[in-house]
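Researcher: I'd like a structural prediction for the single chain below. Treat it as a standalone chain; there are no partners to consider.
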Amino acid sequence: MGLVGLNGAQMLHQLLLDQGVEVMFGFPGGTVLPIFDALYETPIHFVLSRHEQGAIHMADGYARSTGRVGVVLATSGPGATNLVTGLATANMDSVPLVAITGQVRSSLMGNDAFQEADTRGITRPVTKHNSLVADVADLGRVIREAFYIARTGRPGPVLVDITVDAAAAVVGAPPDLEMDLPGYDPAIRINPAEISAAADAINAARRPVLMAGGGVIQARASKALGRLIVKADIPVTTTLMGLGSIDEQDRLALGMLGMHGTATANYAVQECDCLISIGARFDDRVTGRLETFAPHAKIVHVDIDPTSIGKNVSVDVGVLGDAKDVVNRLLPKIRKTTRRAWPKKIRDWRARHPLTYKRSGSIKPQEVIARLGELTDHDAIVATGVGQHQMWAAQYYRWRRPRQIVTSGGLGTMGFGVPAAIGAAIGNPRRTVIDIDGDGSFAMTMVEVLTAVRYDVPVKFIVLNNGYLGMVRQWQELFFDRRYSSVTTASPSFAGVAEAFGARGITVDSRRHLDGALRDALAHKGPVVVDVHVEAEENVYPMVAAGKGLHEMQLGKLA
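Model: Treating it as a single chain, here is the predicted structure.
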C-alpha cells in the first residue's frame, strides 16, 4: 500500500501492519484522536483497558507469552506517565514492547500546555530507547527503528512520542523508511576462544550446575539447552525469569534458586565447582550475600548484554552472545559424560529437603497451586502478581515449558497479574490462562476484570486471600518482632465484585469445596474470579534473609 496521501495516523497503522502487529492495548485521549480515528480503517484488534498501566501490562503479558512485540497506545500527559511503571517492569525483564504516546502540538511544546509532559525525559531511564516525532516525514523511519530495537539484542521497551500535528499531517512525498542507527549494532560475533574456554571449564568440572535465566527463554534456546545438559549430565537450576527453560519433572531439574529457591538448588550452587550461567544477570535475589555465593565454582557467564557480564559477580569465563547460538557452538566441544557422585549428592538433598508444607485445618496456599498444576497437567500459562503467592507459584506449579510463567521479576510490580494474564490470553486464545494472585496485588488492578468481561477473555483469576500484604507481613514477623504495621487488607468479597463486573465469582473458605471450585472455574467458558480464603500467617520457605548466603537459608518448621 502506498503511503503518499495518507495522514500520519493512517501511515502509522500501515507501518504497524508491516511489522506484523495484530493487537494493540491502550486508552484514548485528545492528542491521539487521529490515531484512534484511523482504527476504523485497520484490521488491528484494539483492546481498551480501564487504565493505561493495565494496558501496558497487557501488552507485556502478550509479549512474554508469545515472543512477539507488545504494542500499547496512550495519550499525552497522564496517559503517558501512567505507562512508566509498565515500561520499567518490561525494561528490567527484557520484554520487547513498543509504546506509542501522543504529544501536544509542536508549537505548544514547552509552554505547559494542557496534558503536556516531557515524555521522553520522563521515560528515558526506563526504556531501551525513545524518540519524538514532530514531523510526519520521520514517522516511517522511527517506527521501523523502534520495532528493530525492541526485538533485537537484549530486548526491551521502546517509546515513540508523536505530536498531534504530525499524526494529522498528510504525507506529501514518499517517506524515508531507511533506519538510521549508527550507534546501535546488535549483531554479535561470537568469539571462538570464549566458546573453547567455556567448554574446557565444563569438561573439567566434577560438580557442575547450569543456571538458566530469562535469556534462555528470549533466545528460544530451551531445546538446545536440553541437548547440552543431557550430553554433559549437568543439573539445571533456573532464575524466576528462567522457569520453564527445563521441564521440572526432568531428573536434572533442581528448581528455582535464590531467596525462595529450593534447598536442593541452593545447596548445589554453593557446592558446585563450575557454575554455567546462561541468560541471567546474577540479581541479588538469586545470589544472596555476594561474598559467599558459589565459593568453590569457576563461573562461566553467557549473556547477550556485554554490560551484564561480570557486573555483579566476578566471572572466570565470559561469553558474549545469543544463548541459542552459544549453546549450539558449545555442543560439539562438550564431552559425553555420565556422573555418579554428584547426582547422588543432589538426590540426597532432594530427599532430605523437599518442598513441603504442614497441613492444618485452613486451606494452605501451596495446596491450591499444587492442585491447579495437577488439574491443568502443569501446562497452563500462569500470570502472577507479586508477593508470597508469586513465590509459591514459582515453587509449586511445576513448570513444563518456556513462556509459561508471566511474572514481574526485576521490578516486582504488584498488580501485574490481572492485566498480564488478559494480554497472555489474547495472545494465546487456545490455551488455558490463569492468574494466581494475592488479595493485595489483585486489588490494585482488579478493575481490569471488566476488560476481560468486555472482550470475553476467559482468564481464571485465583486469589489467595490471606487478609494481609503477605510478603511484607512475613518480614515483619521474622525481623520486626511481629509488629504488623499497615499490612492488613480488609478486602471486599472478590467473588461479589466479579459478579458485579459480569464475571463468574466463587468464594472458597473450606478445603472440601476447593477441588470442585477449581474444576468449575477451569471448565467455565468466560472469566472467573475464585476467592480462596487461605491460612493467614503462612510463610514462604525456604527463605534466605537479607545479608545471608544461599547455604544459610531458613527451611521453615518442617526442616
